[in-house]
Amino acid sequence: MTGKLLAIVLLLSALAAGAGMYYLQIYGFYYEVEPQPGQDVVLMTEEGDMPVPIPYSEFQAIDADSSPIRYRGCFETDLKPDQMDGFMPVENPEPLTAPGWFDCYDAVSLGDALKSGQAQAFLGVKNIHFGVDRIVAITRDGKGYVWHALNNCGEKAYDGTVVGEECPKRPEN
């Protein structure tokens, strides 16, 4: 009888731990980001001095303090990708997935639009966190998407490769 009771306790503990981990990964750490006009949707010019805000509406975003690359956002704009001369394009952007409940952001369809030329990605902010850039993509129908992605320095820093002098100093915690 003790063996059966112990097995039941272990099984229930494993189910509770699994449910808790699932909840924390999908819902627990995320929070909605309040719009900050002039800061949410900005694009870096090719001169690379300061990001320039672009007009947008219907902004929604989520973020989490547990990782610098959990930021995702959606917006609408009157601008089209072919009107974006002078802004720094991003080569081979890969949108990161968002939780299923954040339904305005679909990384798979965005990735397809970027590959087919229906959307174009631009650098929003360089090193918004150490080794992380903010990427802004705009589709031909005026939908916009924002996400954070590791840049070259971030990839090196997080995989253990020597960072080198071309990367900024990593801030101390």
Characterization of the model:
The chain has helices spanning 2-28, 107-116, 152-159; strands at 30-32, 42-44, 51-53, 57-64, 72-76, 119-129, 132-139, 143-150. The chain starts with a helix and ends in a 14-residue tail after the last helix. With 173 residues, the chain is of the alpha+beta class. The strands form two sheets. It has a six-stranded antiparallel β-sheet. It has a two-stranded antiparallel ribbon with strand order 2-3. Strand 4 and strand 5 form a beta hairpin. It has three helices and eight strands, in the order H-E-E-E-E-E-H-E-E-E-H. The model has no long low-confidence stretch (mean pLDDT 87).
The whole-number mean of residue pLDDT values reads: 87
Strand content: 25-35%
Determine the structural class based on helices, strands and strand pairing. alpha+beta
Helix content: 25-40%
Uncertain runs:
none
Shape: globular
- Helices, by number, come to 3
Secondary-structure element order, as H and E? HEEEEEHEEEH
What profile does the largest beta sheet have? Answer: 6 strands, antiparallel
Q: Order of strands across the widest beta sheet?
A: 1-4-5-8-7-6
N-to-C CA distance: 52 Å
Alpha carbon gyration radius: 20 Å
Number of strands: 8
